[in-house]
Design a protein that fits this description.
Elements: E1 3-8, H1 14-23, E2 27-32, E3 45-50, E4 76-79, H2 81-89, E5 93-108, E6 122-135, E7 141-146, E8 151-156, E9 161-164, H3 176-187, H4 196-211, E10 216-219, H5 224-236, E11 242-248, H6 256-266, E12 271-276, H7 278-285, H8 291-313, E13 320-322, H9 327-332, H10 348-351, H11 353-360, E14 364-365, H12 373-382, H13 387-390, H14 410-429, E15 438-452, E16 455-468, E17 476-477, H15 484-495, E18 499-504
Parallel strand pairs: 1-2, 1-3, 3-4, 4-9, 10-11, 10-13, 11-12, 13-14, 16-18
Antiparallel strand pairs: 5-6, 5-7, 7-8, 8-9, 15-16, 16-17
Helix pairs in contact: 1-3, 4-5, 4-12, 5-12, 7-8
Length: 517
């Protein structure tokens, strides 16, 4: 199968490049940017993409790809750092900026080049860089400039190289998907041979090979990711070798446990362990307010509960632990393909010490680790899961532990559970749920003065969040029809006596993350 190889230099959006290429039907594979060429290059490679990076080309410890890759007889595309590195390598001028350029920028391209075929001469791009390309290689050609005259794209025919200063992979860049498809299909001539159904077959085979006859234990939350993993394991392996453990942490949504039991039974699960551990989690979180500490405690408590329950379940000693880890979890935790990514926040199924130990010992099965949320949904559909499960909004692994801001207690979780269920039920009743990528409520650690009847009240504050997204790496605020938020707010304050004020979060990603903690 034809492939495009993406060299990862630590950018938070590297995997988005792969997603866009795969959306064009071409298989894309991400490898560490500084790995030896011979470890990934063969005659199936039709093109290379050099990703962005949090580093400057002048940083001593920054990623430095092999010079030999520029001699490979295939087209190459550099994005941001990748473009800057090649310009610097081949005699161009890369200037180190004192301030970072971040945000939208208009790009003007008046050169006839296959990369920009079917794309208007002027379009909106997304910049995110500290360095800038003042001049391309001396024997190169400028293909596009920003409105202020800065180089936005250049070509260097000697190395079959094209450099982009902007990020076509993010949804904020107009025609970014078209540009990457043009690279893969027109410049590289790669055939469209990849689709989710083919990936499903490949990942099933990979799971069968990696697991063999061993027993697999999946810690399942009931959300889309872990449910898709459950369906995949039950399809790829004998149900007798698949154990599903659901830990009721007390940090779940309303009615979660009953829904999980029913869903897993419908998938044909034979070994289902429902564990009630709310008291343990509330006790471990007592007095803790730091979000990273909360995530670590929840992750470690998961493993401790799991180990205790495993001893009672009589599983074999060589069991494997399966998780619904997505690539967004890995890259936000600084665990991308290479070693140059920055950590945005830790995820309990990535950064918890006991999980790290299991990963280091090769005892982790993460079949979704190369996928984004929208791809997971498509995989779930390919596995035969109903829309009611596949279309469910994402729910964080630490649950309400990172939506109750400040100290996590049973009472505060109960308040938030009530609010969140009202919010989601309103969205469903109004036919808005499926228009929104993720919606939830957050309980704040402050109170506000209000009026309840004729009396002064000092109630809690909740924030509502509703965003649209494709992959979770970028997000926009959902635009509610007039009056809807006001109506939802009134219902919440009327039916949840502890809450006296409702606010709406209007922050996009970036600069904010989707979850508050």
């Amino acid at each position: 199968m034809d492939r495009i190889v993406i060299l990862d230099f630590g950018s938070q959006t590297t995997h988005l490049i792969g997603r866009r290429v795969r959306d064009a039907g071409v298989y894309a594979e991400i490898v560490p940017g500084v790995s030896a060429v011979e470890s990934w290059y063969d005659d199936t490679v039709r093109g290379l993409i050099l990703s962005g990076s949090p580093f400057s080309v002048y940083d001593e410890n920054g990623p430095k790809p092999s010079r030999s890759l520029f001699d490979l007889p295939v087209p190459k595309l550099g994005i941001c750092y990748g473009a800057q590195y090649a310009a610097h390598l081949f005699g161009g001028d890369v200037t180190r900026s004192e301030t970072r350029e971040y945000g939208p920028a208009r790009v003007v391209s008046n050169v006839d080049d296959p990369l920009f075929e079917t794309i208007p001469e002027t379009f909106e791009s997304w910049m995110s860089h500290g360095d800038a390309i003042a001049a391309g290689p001396s024997r190169g050609e400028t293909l596009a400039r920003s409105e202020n005259g800065a180089i936005a794209a250049y070509s260097f025919p000697e190395a079959r190289f094209t450099g982009l200063q902007f990020h076509p992979e993010v949804s904020h860049s107009q025609y970014g998907s078209t540009l990457l498809a043009n690279f893969a299909r027109r410049l590289c001539g790669a055939r469209a041979e990849w689709n989710v159904e083919r990936y499903r077959a490949e990942i099933e085979t990979a799971v069968q090979k990696s697991v063999g006859d061993r027993t697999v234990l999946l810690l399942i939350s009931g959300g889309v990711d872990s449910t898709v993993v459950a369906a995949l394991l039950l399809r790829a392996l004998s149900p007798d070798h698949v154990h599903l453990m659901y830990v009721d942490t007390g940090l779940m949504r309303r009615g979660e446990t009953g829904e999980v039991r029913e869903t897993l039974a419908s998938l044909g699960a034979r070994h289902l362990h429902i564990v009630s551990a709310a008291d343990r989690f509330y006790g471990a979180l007592e007095g803790i307010t730091d979000p990273e500490k909360k995530r670590e405690i929840i992750g470690n408590e998961f493993i401790r509960v799991q180990e205790r329950e495993i001893r009672g379940a009589a599983l074999p000693s060589d069991y494997l632990l399966a998780q619904g880890t997505l690539y967004t979890d890995l890259i936000e935790s600084g665990h991308g393909v290479g070693r140059h990514a920055n950590r945005i926040k830790s995820h309990h199924n990535v950064a918890a010490p006991m999980v790290v130990e299991k990963r280091d010992r090769g005892e982790i099965v993460e079949p979704l680790a190369n996928l984004y949320k929208d791809e997971v949904r498509r995989l779930g559909t390919a596995l035969g899961l109903p829309d009611s499960i596949v279309g469910r909004h994402p729910f964080p692994g630490p649950g309400l532990g990172v939506r109750v801001i400040g100290e996590v207690t049973r009472q505060r979780c109960d308040t938030l559970r009530h609010v969140d269920s009202l919010f989601i039920s309103e969205l469903r009743e109004r036919g808005l749920y499926d228009e929104i990528w993720q919606a939830f409520a957050v309980l704040l650690p402050v109170r506000a003065v209000g009026v309840a009847g004729d009396e002064r009240a000092y109630g809690q504050i909740v924030a509502l969040r509703a965003i649209t997204s494709v992959d979770g790496m970028t997000a926009d605020v959902y635009e509610f029809p007039p009056g809807v938020l006001r109506s939802i707010s009134a219902r919440i304050t009327n039916e949840v006596p502890e809450v006296g004020r409702v606010v709406f979060d209007v922050s996009g990603k970036p600069p904010a993350t989707i979850e508050w903690e």
